[in-house]
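Hi V.,

Quick status before I head out on leave. The structure for the redesign project is tokenized and pasted below; the design run finished overnight.
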């Protein structure tokens, strides 16, 4: 097994940033990604537009040029893909990390394809792989999805969208405009305050004019083949339904973090234990980078404010190496 100075788990923007930083500083490294390059971004809705402007999505000061100030998914895929290929980054795609164990001062990393040894490990796996379930009867029906891709699929269908965040609101608007009969079910009293500022007025106006039906302070209680039941302030309602998009957010893989030995806070936030100056966890040589640092507070870290994690981590590794000399 080849020995690496750093193994990076996750080939998203922050994992790529860590790889760039390691390469610049002469460290041997490998990025392990269970899917394609920037797998989470690839699985975003096909027409998705970022909240951040393009310069805030840049890594390693490599310019990101987009047609609009706020780039779309396809532009981001092109940007990050070109960074990987142009810099000949050592990225192993479609290779899932199955186990990481520490033996003395070295980490052993077992994947679906290979085994590795590394002095340091960076976990940059994000949070998009595990949806927050609504835990109601019928959630496992084929008509229910926790991910949204393309509005064309739902044209001329009765679609229920559950959620009040950007993903839910974008899906509701896009599908309505492609001919879906959209019902929006929101657990709180209003459309989420974090919804993109140019989108929020649009959905509110579509609801006011009756183009999209919205139930506030409501929740789905059961899902059947051709209908759903909703608990509302006015009582229980049953409406006709063809498809359900349960876009209620996502969470990090806490089971994987705990298997690594990373301590998590006991409250509902489940914040991982790491040094905010170095990003090193309670396990020496094991680091966190990117949105995974926020636990259940998935709105806390973004590409734009976590891209600094890469130099913080690599500088700490370099400092440790210099102390050994």
């Amino acid at each position: 097994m080849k020995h690496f100075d750093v193994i990076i788990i996750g080939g998203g923007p922050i994992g790529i940033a860590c790889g760039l930083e390691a390469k610049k500083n002469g460290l041997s490294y490998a990025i392990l990604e269970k899917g394609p390059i920037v797998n989470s971004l690839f699985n975003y809705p096909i027409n998705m537009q970022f909240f951040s402007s393009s310069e805030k999505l840049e890594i390693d000061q490599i310019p990101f040029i987009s047609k609009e100030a706020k780039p779309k998914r396809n532009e981001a895929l092109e940007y990050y893909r070109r960074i990987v290929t142009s810099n000949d980054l050592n990225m192993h795609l479609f290779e899932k990390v199955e186990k990481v164990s520490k033996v003395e001062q070295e980490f052993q990393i077992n994947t679906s394809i290979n085994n590795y040894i590394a002095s340091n490990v960076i976990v940059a796996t994000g949070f998009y792989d595990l949806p927050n379930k609504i835990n109601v009867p019928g959630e496992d029906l084929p008509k229910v999805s926790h991910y949204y891709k393309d509005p064309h699929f739902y044209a001329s269908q009765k679609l229920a969208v559950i959620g009040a965040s950007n993903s839910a609101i974008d899906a509701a608007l896009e599908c309505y405009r492609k001919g879906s009969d959209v019902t929006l079910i929101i657990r709180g009293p209003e459309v989420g305050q974090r919804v993109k500022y140019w989108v929020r007025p649009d959905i509110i106006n579509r609801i006011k004019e009756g183009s999209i039906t919205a139930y506030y302070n409501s929740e789905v209680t059961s899902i059947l083949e051709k209908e759903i039941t909703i608990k509302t302030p006015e009582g229980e309602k049953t409406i006709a339904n063809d498809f359900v998009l349960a876009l209620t957010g996502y969470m990090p893989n806490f089971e994987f973090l705990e298997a690594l030995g990373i301590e998590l806070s006991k409250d509902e936030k489940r914040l991982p234990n790491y040094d905010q100056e170095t990003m090193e966890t309670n396990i020496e040589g094991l680091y966190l980078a990117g949105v995974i640092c926020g636990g259940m507070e998935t709105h806390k870290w973004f590409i734009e404010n976590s891209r600094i994690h890469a130099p913080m981590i690599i500088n700490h590794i370099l400092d440790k190496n210099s102390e050994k000399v």
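Above is the designed sequence. Residues 64 and 78 are 10 Å apart (CA to CA).

G. will cover questions while I'm gone.

Best,
W.
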